[in-house]
Design brief:
Structural class: alpha/beta
CATH superfamily of the largest domain: Isopropylmalate Dehydrogenase
Order of helices and strands: EHEHEEHEHHEEHHEHEHHEHEEH
Number of helices: 12
EC number: 1.1.1.262
CATH architecture of the largest domain: 3-Layer(aba) Sandwich
CATH class of the largest domain: Alpha Beta
Bound molecules: nicotinamide-adenine-dinucleotide, 4-hydroxy-L-threonine-5-monophosphate
Radius of gyration: 20 Å
Number of strands: 12
Keywords: Cobalt, Cytoplasm, Magnesium, Metal-binding, NAD, NADP, Oxidoreductase, Pyridoxine biosynthesis, Zinc
Organism: Stutzerimonas nosocomialis
Pfam families: PdxA (PF04166)
CATH topology of the largest domain: Isopropylmalate Dehydrogenase
Helix content: 25-40%
Function: Catalyzes the NAD(P)-dependent oxidation of 4-(phosphooxy)-L-threonine (HTP) into 2-amino-3-oxo-4-(phosphooxy)butyric acid which spontaneously decarboxylates to form 3-amino-2-oxopropyl phosphate (AHAP).
Largest sheet: 12 strands, mixed
Length: about 325
């Protein structure tokens, strides 16, 4: 059955608009509605020398069939200032958030089966005076979801995070029994319900070097991680760890593993991106809506050049189709 999805091109000075236009060069099995400035997409198509044509559509008359190759449906959302590839403008930060809000509200009210997001620039949104740490946290707040989980996945590896966009100095204090338990429950439930894994086996990283070396290099493993995992194991979850993160990612360990749970962003994501940058998807688990995204950022250096890889956005689209087709 044909479904309708929201596609947000993200930061207007970045590669998101380019990616969306390049993908619209081919036909898709579902209806994609880019929530963006029509003028931005027209200008960027011209700059890239693409024949793809943005075509305005509105919520009172959504198209029922996918766009033909070379057409990108657009729900026009005006910019504050014309965008120039590679040049961030804080004045356009509210525009970026408006596109995300339209997409998420459309998912909540049933207009969209899910949303796929191209990269935003977190720094420029903060420069505009708006506290923002990422789509993940923004969508949790917008949907009133107290705890969500960031998971990135590529061929042969899924990595979920206990903490997301936090300064490193704040990480240890954020690894509480309550957060670890909630994140593990969400990861376990969504692997089962949204990815069809009957009894997920999850490998859990320690926080400290060598998982704390028996308490000599930190006590979070003994006091927080192990007791929390044991409580959840007693309920039947297949959880292994806490394991030293430096050797957890060995091929032998990953042979029987449905997901790795890392304690913080740069403990897990460099491994995932080393394995699959450009072919990975970022999924927000625990939301009442389906949201997938790319594995890369705004690549300001490449905006408007056409020298970009659309692989991750393609994986993000396919993952959203699979998650909503179950
Ligand atoms: N999903 C998201 O919204 C998302 C994800 C990651 C980073 N970001 C944000 O993006 C901004 C820039 O981040 P960064 O510089 O750390 O990472 P980046 O991913 O933008 O760039 C890292 C390197 O990868 C290259 N690159 C990235 N995407 C590419 C593509 N599709 N094709 C070819 N080359 C590509 C860039 O040119 C650069 O050399 C930051 O504000 C960051 O927070 C957003
Ligand atoms: N942590 C993500 C990554 O490294 O790819 C990225 O910053 C995007 O996060 P959001 O989906 O929360 O914007």
């Amino acid at each position: 059955m044909v479904r309708r999805f929201a596609l947000t091109p993200g930061e207007p000075a970045g590669i998101g608009p380019d990616l969306c236009l390049l993908l619209a060069g081919s036909a898709h099995p579902h209806v994609l509605i880019a929530i963006a400035s029509h003028a931005l997409l027209s200008d960027r198509a011209a700059a890239l020398g693409l024949a793809t044509r943005p075509q305005c559509v509105t919520p009172d008359a959504w198209p029922s069939e996918p766009a033909p190759a070379g057409t990108l449906y657009v729900w026009d959302t005006p910019l504050a200032q014309p965008a120039e590839p590679g040049h961030l403008q804080a004045a356009n930060a509210p525009y970026v958030l408006e596109t995300l809000t339209r997409a998420a509200q459309g998912c909540l009210d049933g207009s969209f089966a899910g949303m796929i997001t191209a990269p935003v620039h977190k720094g420029v949104i903060n420069d505009a005076g708006i506290a923002f740490s990422g789509h993940t946290e923004f969508l949790a707040q917008l949907t009133g979801t107290p705890q969500v989980v960031m998971m990135l996945a590529t061929h042969g590896l899924r990595v979920a995070l206990v903490t997301t966009h936090l300064p490193l100095k704040d990480v240890a204090a954020s690894i509480t029994p309550q957060r670890l338990e909630e994140v593990t429950r969400i990861l376990h439930a969504d692997l089962r319900d949204k990815f069809g894994i009957g009894s997920p086996r999850i490998l859990v990283c320690g926080l400290n070097p060598h998982a704390g070396e028996g308490g000599h290099l930190g006590r979070e493993e003994i006091e927080i991680i192990e007791p929390t995992l044991q409580r959840l194991r007693d309920e039947g979850m297949d959880l292994v760890g806490p394991l030293p993160a430096d050797t957890l990612f060995s091929p032998k360990n990953l042979e029987r593993c449905d997901a790795v749970l890392a304690m913080y962003h740069d403990q897990g994501l460099p491994v995932l991106k080393y394995k699959g940058f450009g072919a990975a998807v970022n999924v927000t688990l625990g939301l009442p809506i389906v949201r997938t995204s790319v594995d890369h950022g705004t690549a300001l250096d490449l905006a408007g050049t056409g020298r970009i890889d659309t692989g991750s956005l393609q994986v993000a689209l396919e993952t959203a189709y699979q998650m909503t087709g179950r």
